[in-house]
């Protein structure tokens, strides 16, 4: 049975529960189809609440098989029960009381992967956001915190491992074939952080000694035989623990920290207290099977989940509207960690690419919502790029505005004031205000107003008075439910460059606060004058992407070229190249529709090739520059009437022109970039491989021949180089014999490795052009395709819908129909997966009319299907709303 389409939940309706939960004592008797859960809950009535108020517990698809009050049977007139709710009346007004609830659940039949389910013979739970109510009736909301004792009883042979949160209390045999284990988590936590894992797994063990000298046991559990592939994750975990001590002063607080890798998981990973559960894709890596990007993701996600121990677990969210309180902040923390472990500028470029691709797209379409929403119908649909990535950007802006020390003071106060609390965004912001004597009231609009601000820049230089004037306007587009907006506080890092690239320091600045290179835009229009500027400067604005805004600034080509060469801010050098390229691509789209050719400007070619050759720059940076804007970047810049085929053709023409012009350089780079040196996952080795791989892509375009990529594929001794070569073959030469051979060889070699086979499916799903749809249909019949495994579904259907603009957006609408059929197929089993796949169409309103009409038809066909899950219904209604 599926959840019904519900009514919206509103932030304004928040009320604390009438009962306070003191303690939780759970006993699980695990069975593949009939697990018994006995839950003993001690409550007392909250002071000052109605002495008559009933206790209401949440459920989801539950049947009650026992209910006791202080160990005695409750008469039926004292309670009302339904699969989603248990209400108990006539409870003591003053004294604490104990409720014992017994339920039986079937983990094998749980295909939603929420609550207790089975994956590869393992018992595993997922409770965020509202999965605990699928295990037992419970006040399943994040502001109900309690210490938990968990007893697990299971068949010993099949489940040598019995894990839950907190510290291990003890275990023993239990009857002839069973055993039991008890865990106690002393830190009060909400139910969404509960976890239980049982089964037979291999383990990698290590220890970490904390700042204050306590030894913590570290364990990463993986399938037997995969232990060596968890070594990098363990290394990343130890570095995360140390970094959080050094940078945020946060120490780990239990005797043991465990990570379990599972192969069926709806999301990336989950920060359950002391027992993180991970999608195995973000744990397992070795050079032969994982790419540099996989290693970087593992490092980031291990860190992210670990950092949640303080930002999320010790201080949790009062309600789900506050999700960004833990997610935005924790993404910011993992970004800073990666920046410290790797190259800050390169990391920032990658973040901004991701932010624009995901969050800017979301913010510009029908699913736009504030970082801190005020209403939702299905909370699972709010684990979004806006909450996570924009939430992180908002935190970053606080750091920019208050400076490093001011930010640290605010964070320290937050930890001090709210440890053990279920807090709100307002609580968080107040700590920064109080610690700094600052007023962040206007700034807080970033949490409440959706939409990406557009900052329009106009400049004028007056030589006689040596003044440079900037006129800055801000406008925030209308978004669903928010037709008009107030001006925001936008911190713009900027610099003025002289003719030889030096920074020009103004004698004074008027018209805006300007300090430490940051201009604070607060009004809808500000005219800012820089005095004492002796030559016409070149403006470098929004350095390091200090604010998540779109700039409307038709900067002269020569100025962009100047920045590309000289800007002291590496991010801005990348931005300048990207701006040159995007302009060429947008011109190209126009020219192609007028029957003319698309091309690359000499300015772009020169800037890009100079950057590619510049041995003083990090290879990883050079690779980022060579990546150029994506087709999605072009579509977003157009904003409307987007024709994915034209975007693709224009982009390709620009890449082709660069490839021709830089052919000799790309050959030299490809040969020099150590593609054969022994593999190490560190950032600088990865950077050399990225640059070599980028060169190979350009060479494929210049040469029009698969030979070089086929050679690279055959000779590669690591997955980063091998998989890139395979992508070049598949994407540039899909029908070549070399490509067929490489795909077959890859499949033969890796058919037993699910994570590598995911790549094999994805690389084919992302081949540009309308023929790919036929491939998708054929691949869905492949013996290794598995509609029950979320990673596999995402690798084929997700990759096609999200990452293949030309293939998915076929003019005849067949791509949309395929996705719609997939949504309806998955929805009854796994609504979360279905709803997330559907967001691939979030930008449908930007399409040209023919495709737009086809997209709308497909969406309406979904919308009119009876018995949709609440998840899919919510998304489709908003998309069409
Ligand atoms: N809280 C997890 C994270 O960001 C994400 C998640 C949400 C996982 C919901 C599972 C379910 O770290
Ligand atoms: Zn998180």
TrEMBL record:
Give yes or no: UniProt keyword Hydrolase. Answer: yes
One Gene Ontology molecular-function label:
alanyl aminopeptidase activity
Q: Which UniProt keywords apply?
A: Aminopeptidase, Hydrolase, Metal-binding, Metalloprotease, Protease, Zinc
Q: Where is the Peptidase M1 alanyl aminopeptidase C-terminal domain?
A: 558-880
User: GO biological process: what's one of them?
Assistant: proteolysis
Catalyzed chemical reaction(s): Release of an N-terminal amino acid, Xaa-|-Yaa- from a peptide, amide or arylamide. Xaa is preferably Ala, but may be most amino acids including Pro (slow action). When a terminal hydrophobic residue is followed by a prolyl residue, the two may be released as an intact Xaa-Pro dipeptide
Q: Does the keyword Zinc apply?
A: yes
Task: List the cofactors.
Answer: Zn(2+)
Q: Kindly report, in one word, the top-level EC class recorded for this enzyme.
A: hydrolase
Domain annotation Aminopeptidase N-like N-terminal: ranges = 97-193
Under Enzyme Commission nomenclature, its number is 3.4.11.2
Annotated Peptidase M1 membrane alanine aminopeptidase domain ranges read 232-443
Q: Which residues form the Peptidase M1 alanyl aminopeptidase Ig-like fold domain?
A: 451-552
Database matches in InterPro entries = Aminopeptidase_N-like_N (IPR045357), Aminopeptidase_N-like_N_sf (IPR042097), PepN_Ig-like_sf (IPR038438), Peptidase_M1 (IPR001930), Peptidase_M1_dom (IPR014782), Peptidase_M1_pepN (IPR012779), Peptidase_M1_pepN_C (IPR024601), Peptidase_M1_pepN_C_sf (IPR037144)
Q: Of which family is this protein a member?
A: Belongs to the peptidase M1 family.
Recorded protein name is Aminopeptidase N
């Amino acid at each position: 049975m599926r959840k019904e389409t519900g009514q919206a939940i509103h932030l304004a309706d928040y009320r604390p529960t009438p009962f306070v939960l003191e303690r939780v004592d759970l006993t699980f008797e695990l069975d593949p189809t009939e697990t018994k859960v006995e839950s003993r809950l001690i409550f007392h009535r909250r002071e000052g609440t109605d002495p008559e108020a009933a206790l209401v517990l949440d459920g989801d698809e539950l049947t009650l098989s026992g209910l006791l009050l202080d160990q005695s049977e409750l008469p039926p007139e004292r309670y009302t029960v339904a699969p989603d709710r248990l209400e108990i009346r006539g409870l003591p007004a003053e004294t604490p009381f104990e409720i014992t609830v017994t339920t039986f659940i079937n983990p094998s039949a749980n295909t939603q992967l929420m609550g207790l389910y089975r994956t590869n013979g393992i018992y595993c739970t997922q409770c965020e956001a509202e999965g605990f109510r699928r295990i037992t009736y419970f006040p399943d909301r994040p502001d109900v915190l309690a210490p938990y004792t968990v007893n697990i009883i299971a068949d010993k042979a099949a489940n040598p491992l019995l894990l839950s949160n907190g510290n291990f209390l003890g275990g023993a045999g239990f009857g002839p074939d069973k055993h039991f284990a008890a865990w106690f988590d002393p830190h009060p936590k909400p139910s969404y952080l509960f976890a239980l894992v049982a089964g037979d797994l291999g383990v990698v063990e290590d220890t970490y000694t904390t700042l204050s000298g306590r030894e913590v046991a570290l364990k990463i559990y993986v399938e037997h035989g995969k232990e060596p592939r968890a070594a990098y994750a363990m290394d990343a975990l130890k570095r995360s623990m140390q970094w959080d001590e050094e940078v945020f002063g946060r120490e780990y607080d239990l005797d043991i920290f465990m990570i379990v890798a599972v192969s069926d998981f709806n999301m990336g990973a989950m920060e359950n207290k002391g027992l993180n559960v991970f999608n195995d894709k973000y744990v397992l890596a070795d050079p032969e099977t994982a790419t540099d990007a996989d290693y970087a993701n593992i490092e980031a996600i291990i860190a992210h989940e670990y950092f949640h121990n303080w930002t999320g677990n010790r201080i949790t969210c009062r309600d789900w509207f506050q999700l960004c309180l833990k997610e935005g902040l924790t993404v910011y923390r993992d970004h800073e960690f990666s920046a410290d472990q790797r190259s800050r500028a390169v990391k920032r470029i990658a973040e901004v690419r991701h932010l624009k691709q995901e969050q800017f797209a979301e913010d510009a379409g029908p699913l736009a919502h504030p970082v801190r929403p005020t209403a939702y119908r299905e909370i699972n649909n709010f684990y979004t790029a806006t909450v996570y990535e924009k939430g992180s950007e908002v935190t970053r802006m606080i750091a920019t505005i208050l400076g490093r020390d001011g930010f640290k003071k605010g964070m320290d106060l937050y930890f001090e004031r709210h440890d053990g609390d279920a807090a709100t965004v307002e609580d968080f912001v107040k700590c920064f205000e109080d610690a700094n004597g600052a007023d962040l009231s206007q700034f807080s609009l970033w949490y409440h107003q959706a939409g990406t601000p557009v900052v329009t820049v106009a400049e004028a230089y007056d030589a006689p008075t040596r003044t440079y004037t900037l006129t800055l306007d801000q406008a925030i587009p209308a978004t669903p439910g928010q037709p008009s907006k107030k001006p925001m506080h936008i911190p713009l890092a900027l610099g003025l460059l002289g003719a030889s690239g030096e920074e020009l320091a103004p004698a004074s600045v008027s018209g805006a606060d300007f300090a430490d290179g940051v201009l604070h835009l607060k009004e809808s229009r500000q005219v800012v004058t820089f005095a004492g500027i002796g030559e016409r400067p070149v403006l470098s604005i929004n350095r390091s992407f200090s604010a998540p805004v779109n700039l409307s600034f038709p900067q002269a080509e020569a100025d962009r070229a100047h920045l590309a060469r000289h800007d002291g801010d590496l991010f801005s050098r990348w931005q300048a190249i990207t701006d040159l390229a995007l302009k060429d691509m947008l011109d190209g789209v126009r020219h192609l529709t007028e029957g003319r050719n698309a091309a690359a400007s000499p300015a772009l070619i020169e800037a890009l090739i100079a950057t590619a050759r510049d041995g003083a720059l990090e290879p990883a940076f050079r690779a980022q520059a060579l990546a150029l804007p994506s087709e999605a970047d072009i579509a977003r810049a157009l904003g409307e009437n987007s024709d994915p085929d034209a975007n693709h053709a224009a982009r390709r023409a620009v890449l082709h022109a660069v490839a021709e012009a830089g052919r000799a350089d790309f050959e030299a780079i490809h040969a020099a970039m150590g593609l054969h040196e022994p593999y190490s996952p560190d950032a600088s080795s990865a950077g050399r491989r990225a640059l070599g791989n980028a060169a190979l892509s350009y060479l494929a375009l210049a040469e029009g021949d698969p030979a070089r990529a086929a050679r690279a594929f055959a000779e590669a001794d690591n997955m980063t180089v091998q998989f890139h070569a395979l992508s070049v073959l598949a994407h540039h030469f899909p029908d070549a014999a070399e490509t067929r051979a490489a795909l077959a060889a890859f499949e033969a070699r890796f058919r037993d490795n699910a994570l590598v086979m995911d790549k094999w499916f994805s690389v084919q799903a992302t081949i540009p052009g309308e023929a790919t749809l036929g491939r998708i249909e054929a691949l869905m019949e492949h013996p290794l395709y598995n509609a029950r495994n979320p990673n596999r579904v995402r690798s084929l259907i997700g990759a096609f819908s999200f990452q293949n603009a030309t293939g998915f957006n076929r003019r005849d609408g067949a791509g949309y129909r395929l996705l719609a059929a997939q949504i309806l197929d998955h929805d009854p089993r796994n609504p979360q997966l279905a709803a997330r796949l559907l967001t691939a169409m979030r930008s449908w309103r930007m399409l040209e009319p023919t495709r737009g009409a086809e997209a709308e038809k497909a969406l309406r066909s979904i919308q009119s299907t009876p018995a949709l899950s609440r998840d899919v219904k919510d998304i489709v209604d908003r998309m069409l709303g």
